[in-house]
Amino acid sequence: MRSICVFCGSASGIRPAYAEAAEALADALARRGLGLVYGGGSVGLMGLLANAALARGVSVTGVIPRHLNDLEIGHKGLTELHVVDSMHQRKALMAELADGFVALPGGVGTLEELFEVYTWGQLGLHPKPVALLDVGGYYASLVGFLDHSVREGFLHAEHRDFLLTGNAPDAVLEAMAGWTPPRVPKWLDRKST
101-103 and 80-84: which strand pairing? Predict the structure, then answer.
């Protein structure tokens, strides 16, 4: 892996642990020589993560839609900033530039970005690891819901296992580095038909 895409909030949340996790993730990226790809914002956890990564010498690439950049929330001091025309282009370019994905705490935008790359992996559209950095149990209910989906027959267990989860940046990045993509299900494998 050369770079990790991090999805996270444009708000900071109410607990100091969220900012501490962003700082710790920046430390872990720097120690491993990994670049950061993220949504290009200067606010909330996004801005904090970018600033922490830059301060540690990490190459930081932002991808932001023009309408958000025009609102002056685009980060001005990144290694590289791509301004694109739509949210769809933003997600596609972030996915193209990254070798794996991590979600820090965030709101519905973070979840939407996470679930899109999670789904793409499940469908065999990319072989990249996807992980939750579960800060203080922030994602515990989501993990429980996914496990419930397996029990109820709406999510295959191997697809559930596609989403890695950990509560420490180093552990998450270590799991991602050792991750092997699952086989594409037979119903999606065109070679087997």
Answer: unpaired
